[in-house]
Design a protein that fits this description.
Layout: H1 23-50, H2 55-72, E1 80-82, H3 84-98, H4 102-125, H5 137-160, H6 169-178, H7 185-201, H8 209-224, H9 226-230, H10 252-284, H11 290-306, E2 312-314, H12 316-324, H13 331-351, H14 356-368, H15 377-382, H16 386-420, E3 425-430, E4 437-439, E5 452-457, H17 466-480, E6 484-488, H18 497-512, E7 516-520, H19 524-533, H20 540-543, H21 548-555, H22 559-567
Helix pairs in contact: 1-2, 1-3, 1-8, 1-12, 1-13, 1-14, 2-11, 2-13, 3-4, 3-10, 3-16, 4-10, 4-11, 5-6, 5-14, 5-16, 7-8, 7-14, 10-16, 17-18
Length: 569
């Protein structure tokens, strides 16, 4: 939508799908499944390299994600498989714990994935599916942008055909520049050609561009004997014949360390998954089932971890590709899994001969769509959250993927606490001659109610800000010289023990000064809590007002009514 005047009518929803039980819908799902299989298999192998895991780890994750979500999930477009962001997190986490031992790294990765799956399962059982925004969007976009740059830079040694692994991005860039005479021009040419081809294939959604590029790379390798004659690295053997269902044997300290960061991994995966699912659900008017999706993600990650696979989530690019390919139901994912199995049976030995520069190009192309600085423009236009978005980018650069992720999560929590901890209280006045009450600062023509002070906290009241908000209420009452206070708690969904105690203290202070406190617009959980609390200063007559207007009318009813309210009779 442009920045001009919005339309008076909401935009129509996209055309609903055909009945998934019809022959046409099944055919569309079959075509879509075959199309995205050609994208998913190369990306799964490529993402294994980001995580520094064997190529079969991505293939295992692909099967686990597609099948688990195809059976349990709700979205008809979501494609659950390995993702570049989670691969980078796994790579950074296991690198810090494995100490250069590849066997230990594989065990740590499997345990990490299983723990993230356990977080999803627990969240599903706790009905936390609607709490999808644990990570603020500006922070997530900043982290994703920085992570994409890190991933691309770490693919450059492969494309250039050199060995480089600096402790940070500056060191990596310095090493790459210092070795310019050792750059393998064959690797550079293959990587550049693959990128150009992948860019060209973007126009044809149903053409598996990544698979075509791999096929061309393998053919070129066989024709020119690139590996032997020019030192070109290849993917290597993909071993799926030794799969074993097993729980990793690690020390309690290693399990504990992985558990500490598994929640952060789950948050990133679910934020990405939820964003992908909800964007298309809104486009087509589809229902969503967050708790069911959480369970599907949990099962998919646990299964992937048990077979030493990578973490899985619904990546935006794969999900959009599924929609563009014409998917009509979740069967498209099941057909994709079957198509991937057919590819593995028929062409897996050939995939092992793929030049590593081709896979690096696939990774760079896949994450390149997130490198759009324009995503930050709204935050600068709105003058909101721009510093935290840029801070998330810099955190990844300065601290690395793992610590940058933890900082990003901490920034999101800080943003939430900052919003919730606000102690602003607005004075409400009557708008014109109607029943509405508005913020006096926003409507200078609104009228005060004689003898009654109407107030509304600007944020939910809970244990962090309850004492400060009610202290502000006392100050405003004292400054106004009015005895009766109507307090609207419409922003507060529920109350904790600290808030109930603070609310009782506020009512006692106002009553001791000869005044009266009435509460309006309370949510049912608050009414239930206050009924159980049985605060003598807040009887049912003082808290049961559905609107501010009703509470004001009761406050102005007269001395007899006021006495009854105080006494709680």
């Amino acid at each position: 939508m442009d920045a001009g005047t919005p339309s008076q009518n909401p935009p129509p929803l996209a055309q609903p799908p055909a009945d998934p039980g019809t022959r046409g819908a099944l055919g569309a799902d079959l075509i879509a499944g075959i199309s995205i299989a050609g994208l998913l298999l190369p990306e799964a192998v490529a993402y294994s390299g980001i995580a520094s895991l064997p190529p079969q780890a991505g293939v295992i994750a692909l099967f686990a994600g597609l099948l688990a979500y195809g059976v349990i999930g709700r979205s008809r477009f979501a494609v659950v498989s390995a993702t570049s962001s989670s691969a980078a997190i796994v790579g950074a986490t296991t690198a810090s714990l494995a100490g250069g031992d590849p066997a230990l790294r594989l065990l740590l990765a499997a345990a990490f994935v299983m723990l993230a799956g356990g977080v999803f399962l627990l969240a599903s059982l706790a009905k936390l599916g609607n709490a999808t925004d644990f990570i603020a969007k500006p922070v997530l976009r900043g982290f994703t942008f920085g992570l994409a740059i890190v991933i691309i830079l770490k693919q450059l040694p492969i494309v250039l055909g050199v060995k480089a692994g600096g402790a940070n991005l500056l060191a990596l860039a310095w090493q790459l520049g210092a070795q310019w005479q050792a750059w393998n021009l064959y690797d550079v040419g293959i990587g550049a050609a693959a990128l150009l081809l992948l860019k060209g294939f973007e126009r044809w959604h149903r053409v598996p561009g990544a698979l075509v590029v791999i096929a061309l790379g393998v053919a070129l390798n066989r024709l020119l004997d690139l590996q032997a004659a020019h030192g070109i690295e290849v993917v290597g053997t993909i071993q799926l014949d030794r799969l074993r269902l097993a729980v990793p044997q690690l020390s309690s300290a290693q399990w504990q360390r992985l558990a500490e960061v598994s929640v952060a991994l789950a948050l990133v995966l679910y934020s990405e998954t939820s964003g992908s699912i909800r964007s298309l659900a809104l486009k087509y008017g589809d229902p969503v089932s967050p708790n069911r999706d959480l369970f599907a993600l949990g099962l998919g990650n646990v299964l992937s971890g048990l077979f030493s696979g990578m973490p899985v989530g619904a990546g935006y690019s794969a999900t959009i590709a599924n929609e563009a390919a014409g998917a009509q139901s979740r069967l498209a994912g099941v057909f994709a899994a079957a198509a991937v199995l057919l590819l593995i049976v028929t062409v897996l030995p050939w995939v092992a001969l793929t030049p590593a520069a081709v896979l690096a190009a696939i990774v760079i192309h896949a994450v390149g769509h997130t490198l759009n600085p324009r995503v930050f423009l709204p935050y600068f236009t709105w003058q909101r959250d721009r510093l935290v978005a840029i801070g998330a980018v810099l955190a990844v650069f300065a601290l690395g993927v793992l610590d940058g992720l933890l900082v990003a999560v901490a920034m999101s929590v800080a943003l939430a606490l900052r919003g919730f901890a606000q102690d602003s209280v607005a004075e409400l006045r009557r708008h014109a001659d109607g029943h509405d009450f508005v913020d006096a600062r926003r409507d200078p023509d609104s009228r005060a109610i004689p003898g009654v002070l109407v107030l509304r906290p600007g944020s939910p009241v809970f244990f962090v800000n309850a004492d400060r908000i009610f202290a502000h209420v006392r100050e405003l009452r004292a400054a106004s010289g009015l005895a009766t206070v109507v307090l609207s708690l419409e922003e507060t969904p529920d109350v904790d023990g600290t808030t109930i105690e603070a609310l009782g203290g506020l009512a006692r202070d106002i009553h001791a000064a000869g005044g009266l406190l009435l509460l309006a617009r309370l949510k049912p959980p608050i009414l239930d809590a206050l009924a159980r609390a049985r605060l003598p200063e807040l009887p049912e007559q003082a808290v049961s007002y559905f609107s501010v207007d009703d509470a004001v009318a009761a406050a102005m009813a007269g001395a007899g009514g006021r006495a009854d309210l105080k006494a709680g009779s």
